[in-house]
Amino acid sequence: MLQEHFDVLIIGAGLSGIGAAYQLQNNCPNKSYAILEGREALGGTWDLFRYPGIRSDSDMYTLGYAFKPWKEQKAIADGPSILKYLHETADEHHITSKIHFRNTVKSATWCSKEALWTVQVERREGLAPAEYTCNFLFLCGGYYQYAAGYTPNFPGIDDFQGELVHPQNWTDDIDYKDKKVVVIGSGATAVTLVPELAKQAEHVTMLQRSPTYMMSRPAIDTFANRLRKILPAKLAYGIVRWRNVLLTMFVFHRSKKNPEGMKKYLIQRVRKVMGDDYDVETHFTPNYGPWDQRLCLVPDDDFFKALKDNSASIVTEHIDKFTAEGIRLKSGQELEADMVVSATGLALEVFNGIDLSVDGKAVIPAETYMYKGMMYSNIPNMAVSFGYTNASWTLRSDLTCAYVCRLLNHMDASGTQQCTPRFDGTDIGESEWFNLSSGYVQRAKDKLPKQGDRNPWMAPQNYLLDIKNLKFGKIEDGTMEFRRATG
């Protein structure tokens, strides 16, 4: 069996993992590290998802890394452009050679006596399992299962004679040209798919149970592109990044402070695009407040244009059952379909799907509390890179990576080998960790770690507060325990 040791093991070679590697190289140059990636390529989400029109629902000035300016024309970038950016980043900083591909982590056990994680890994077909040890485990594999997305067990689904596909499992040989396509769902994936499929399909119907808030913006940021022509790339990038951060924060806080006002504003914008004759009340007026779920981004009005030229349409109804020819709705209406795309969400995953144990005791995620939104109560030397629910993922993952480096350097300076957030439950209430009402969150609610109602046992979902807490806050805060190995 292959056995190797590293100071730090990073799990996942996507957006977070590559960012973590960069931070380690720059802030902890004396630390050895490797990235364990279960798939055969880097990129994470941006390599996995191949459905038509795949793009970011965040601008690349905030989804991109702080250390690598985004230089493409489009701020709302397509998947291949984002993947190219990640490959460039990994190659430029010599990270690619540190990635161990087709290494799927199955379990990790912590031993306090040795201050060591032992990680069991399945490797690609034909190779024996491997065992790695590390002093610090950094989970950067995202928050959902890569094997498959979530598709409800619709009645009669086996009777359907057409093609049924989940966007997460889309392949290049799927043919939708001149077909009647029904896309089930109303989230970001559905809103991305519909206008792209409509370019070649006979017709595309988006079937939704309930509407989603949508916000249109140009895919090209004219201000950013002009600024790049007169300022150094990094300075221009930083200015646009902060402008977009503050704008996103403003929209979120206005949504929470005055939900009715923001609701009215968002719906009026849709009505202005679609016209007074369109049934905006039925198809674009959600029954929840803005930012109870993520807003759907519509670049260059592409989704609305597909509706207006009748290449696509929306049906807001509940499914009764699948039939051989399509879908029957509760109202009795039949939707004919040659293909059904189930854009019905993700399957949430905790701890990157890894079985964890600490000193012989299995860790149950739902019994742990999140520390600063990046570590877990009573689990030593382990962090998770987790982004924002109300802003770009990378903003918070960057801060998390930098904080991990601070922890590692502090342990070196203090002669300690273990850092553990200690939680005794005294006078701590609970609050929502995933503060979204989205289906994929609600389905996994009983499996998720808990969050407290005050610092450091809660993540504020606020970039400015996180800069204060993670970048400048005390490492020794009375909650984080530092110890030497007991062996």
How would you characterize the overall build of this protein?
- The chain has 487 residues and is of the alpha/beta class.
- It folds into two domains: 2-147 and 349-483, 3-Layer(bba) Sandwich (FAD/NAD(P)-binding domain), CATH 3.50.50.60; 157-342, FAD/NAD(P)-binding domain, CATH 3.50.50.60.
- The protein is built from 13 helices and 25 strands.
- The strands form seven sheets. Strands 1, 2, 3, 4, 5, 6, 17, 18 and 21 form a nine-stranded mixed sheet that branches.
- Strand 13 (319-322) and strand 14 form a beta hairpin.
- Helix 6 runs antiparallel to helix 7 (233-257).
- The longest helix is centred in the middle third of the chain and has 25 residues, at 233-257.
- The protein is globular, with a radius of gyration of 23 Å.
- It starts with a strand and ends with a strand.
Describe this structure in a few short sentences.
This protein has 487 residues and is an alpha/beta fold. The chain has helices at residues 15-27, 45-48, 60-63, 79-92, 188-197, 222-230, 233-257, 259-274, 280-283, 302-308, 393-414, 439-443, 463-471, and strands at 2-11, 33-36, 99-100, 103-111, 116-123, 130-139, 163-165, 180-184, 203-208, 214-217, 296-299, 312-316, 319-322, 326-329, 334-336, 339-342, 355-358, 361-362, 370-371, 375-376, 382-384, 418-421, 430-431, 451-452, 480-483. Strands 1, 2, 3, 4, 5, 6, 17, 18 and 21 form a nine-stranded mixed beta sheet that branches. Strands 7-16-8-9-12 form a five-stranded parallel beta sheet. It has a three-stranded antiparallel beta sheet with strand order 13-14-15, with no helix packed on it.
